[in-house]
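[audit] Reproducing an earlier prediction to check determinism. Same input, same settings, fresh worker. If the tokens differ from the archived copy the diff job will pick it up downstream; this log only records the rerun itself.
[audit] input (750 residues):
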Amino acid sequence: MPPAEVATGTTTLEISVPVLPPDVAALNTQPTFHLAPVLLDAPADIDAIDGSRSARMPAAMQAIPREWQGVRGRGLTVSAIRALPRPQFTPAPIATGQGDVLPSAGTGVVSTFTPAQIRTAYGMPTLPASLSSLTAAQAAQLGAGQTIYIVNAKHDPNIMAELNAFNQKFGLPACTVKSIAANASLPLAAASSAAGCEFSVVFSTSAGGMSSTTPAYDSGWATEIALDVQWAHATAPLARIILIEASDSSMSNMVGGIRLANAMGPGVVSMSFGSSEGSWTAGVESTFTTAKMTYLAASGDNGPAVEWPAVSPNVVAVGGTSLTYSGSSRTEVAWANTGGGVSAYTATPAYQNTTVPGMGAPARRTVADVSMNSDPNTGQYVAVMTPGSSTVNWVSAGGTSLATPQWAGIIAVANATLVQAGKTVLGAPHAVLYNKISSVPGSYASVFADVAKGSNGSCAACTAKTGHDQLTGLGTPNVSNLLSTLSGTVITPAPTVASASISGQTGTALSFTVSASSSNPLTYSLSGNPSGMTISSAGNVTWATPVVGTYTVTVNALDAATGQSGKGTYTVTITAPVPPAVTASTINGVAGSALSFNVNATSANALTYSLSGAPSGMSISQTGVVSWTSPLVGKYVVTVIVKDSKTGLSNQAVFNISIVASGLSINAPAMTGVAGKALTGTISISAPGATSLSISISGAPLGLNFAMSGMNITTSWSSPVTGNYTLKITATDNTGRSATVNMPVTITAK
């Protein structure tokens, strides 16, 4: 019998405690698209030559069999629709001769809109019959020179074929594919106004960089990608589109995709995904603060709920409506599944205030901000292809993920028209939408269609109302009026003042500087401040003699040039001086080996340290490091005294110090056995004063097992194989001591 094979690795037995903290980075986000549960007949070709021909026609309608009417539309894909049980009776559609299909008795109906119908319904600039001789102003009204970043997870291998089919069917400008290398220098060159639509796909990393590794395909995310790209392009047909695909939908990778967009340069970021908000959202808020970037996110499709990233005060939260458009007028109600609500964690932003109609005084950040058609049963055409197939499937898509890329396109067009007029881009548009437009009655009525009907639940705030509401925000856009209002307005956002919590102590003067931003100089004032607290012209708050208590102080910042103001709330907590905190501990050491450890002490001020009961030779530095060059065997009780250098208050803690004799040993007697007969042995370890051990054993023959109990390791081999083996055993303890022995194992044939 040949010798047993010797394992090439090392078996490590280690005494340790696993650390399993909750990991927000691993949370999954979800796409927010919906599909009506039916594959549509291909849309008519009337827009193929003239992209505006269907504009004044009513939506196409198609029957949904009764058996499918209860199918949930969220995340529904083409393959899932194909897998639905065949209905016993599928009614034949009734054609009107004008591209419409009417349902037969006993069926539901889905209405589906073309890009031309949506552009006309929402008052977008008319799509020219020819793009060959556009003026600069006409090109700007189609988003020329602007960039839309679409952040999604996984990969859609058919995205270009789907976009081409969509463009050809509806007479939209074709997009030129432009490759961006994974090692390309960032930021990218600005989009060219003369280049027309350029389309690029990049793969992001969790660190915000680019990767050359293509993410895996996922039918749900691929459907989301197709929807986002096609309707961002339909809204801003000459804008550059950069599709950013993250390797998966984890929070860390989606945030990485947004950070990559920030690094690529100014533009509009469309995010048709979400995850339930939490206290962690403040930790990623800096992701949405890059200058000249506008961020938009779907409010979610789960009814009255608040989701990230829409909850961010720097993100435009896009809600949903159900659209009726006859070819001449539009009416809307809140979509029954649209998300929205009041955040449980994010403070109220300054732009959401009592001057906004319907806003009231929200307790915290309120979602949504704006809205647009999102109901898949009053949906919009999307071309979807499955991998390996050249067949184009037409679906009626919805979800707040449909409204989001369209609002991204609207912002891109607004930015293009502003640049054409010699003005700066919107960046964060909240202050303009809320305080420059909605707070002015005439502007509000012109720019927004206020959606005041419909509900998404039974709660008190679950019904749309006049003015701002949680379902539809300020309402849906009248785009031409929005562009006109913006072009006639100097886009100077109201000052923003950060809110914060400030701590101080009596006996110590308090001073902090307010964080505020504005394009013009600011003047400051305080309200709710205690006696003696003042603010300087530079925004520095001082209080010479703080008094114990908690104070809610409002900092008001006024832009003298525009008359706009902003405010932030500072919670100031003043406590009486407290002694420094010092933590007791048990310290182990080995005789003859230098001992050193840090005292864990905290205070608002500098500390001084001293020892009581210390053995000869032990000392403590002024940074709290205890040293003993030559420890002697024994147990010592040492008191560490810490003193606050400013208040004079002191505290102390007892340190139990145990010094043991040096030496770590391994007893590993040789093992001798006979082939085929079970063999056991024991390895014993002695490590005086140690609190943990790491033991490694190499050279073990296959089949030899180890079990550790306390300081002993039991070896067992149920069926030894003839041969001579040598186990190398190494032990290391927490004090740094180590020992190594070789243990022979001899197995004879008889």
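[audit] rerun output stored. Observation attached for the diff report: Confidence is low (pLDDT under 50) at residues 1-22, 89-107.
[audit] end
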